[in-house]
Specification:
The protein contains 7 helices and 10 strands. It is of the alpha/beta class. Helix 4 packs across helix 5 (149-161) and helix 5 packs parallel to helix 6. The relative contact order is 0.20. This is ABC transport system ATP-binding protein.
């Protein structure tokens, strides 16, 4: 693992006003994530995991604090700037797969490449490579409703990888899968990590958290514990 800091969070806060009350979803978190690290973010429901994930994924901005990605301050970007950086630097994998129902597996994986302006012939090569890597090249013409949960998540991981992002953010990626498929998907994440990719995995399950190199535990928007696995 490199000593290069890929992500640096400095005293990040996310506050929500609820009438007279102020909810501190993230309350002063400072965190470094190194290039090539496999980090787990754990905590019960309402601990601030999803809010922190959204800030790291530049889906949301902090109320206070600084966020540096590859040395660049990305704390407060407009929608267009945020969208450009997300498409280039961040691959997302969600519990609910977030595949487009009307598109085939091939077309779902191809979508980020279209946004990135990659020519059609090259897109085909890249999509076929990643679907093959995920072990589902034979399912590329199938739509999501013709695929099992594990196959859908493999398509989602392929889609997250095609733009060769700096980081993969996985939000409860095994939450909708049975134990055998969970093991298969975690093995894929390990393989991706061994190839040098930085992965941040959000989970509320202790067993899943143990799969990462380092785990931080959140409670009430704060890091209350950190340990190496």
């Amino acid at each position: 693992m490199s000593d290069n800091i890929l992500i640096k969070l400095e005293k990040i806060k996310k506050l929500y006003k609820m009438g007279e009350t102020e909810l501190r979803a993230v309350d002063g978190i400072s965190l470094n994530i190194k290039e090539g690290e496999f980090l787990g973010i754990m905590g019960a429901s309402g601990s601030g995991k999803s809010t922190l994930m959204n800030i790291i994924g530049i889906l949301d901005s902090p109320t206070e604090g600084k966020y540096f990605l590859k040395g660049k301050d990305v704390s407060f970007l407009d929608d267009i700037q945020a969208s450009k950086i997300r498409n280039k630097e961040i691959g997302f994998v969600f519990q609910t797969f977030n595949l487009i129902k009307g598109l085939t597996a091939f077309e779902n994986v191809e979508t980020p490449l279209i946004y990135a302006g990659i020519p059609k012939k090259r897109r085909k090569e890249i999509v076929e490579y990643y679907l093959d890597k995920m072990g589902i090249a034979d399912r590329m013409k199938h739509k999501p409703n013709q695929l099992s949960g594990g196959q859908r998540q493999r398509v989602a991981i392929a889609r997250a990888l095609v733009n060769e992002p700096s980081i993969i953010l996985a939000d409860e990626p095994t939450g909708n899968l049975d134990s055998k498929t969970t093991e298969e998907i975690l093995n894929l994440f390990h393989k991706i990590h061994e190839e040098g990719k930085t992965i941040v995995l959000v989970t509320h399950e202790t067993e899943i958290g143990k799969e990462t190199e380092r785990t931080i535990v959140l409670k009430d928007g704060k890091i209350i514990k950190e340990y190496k696995n």
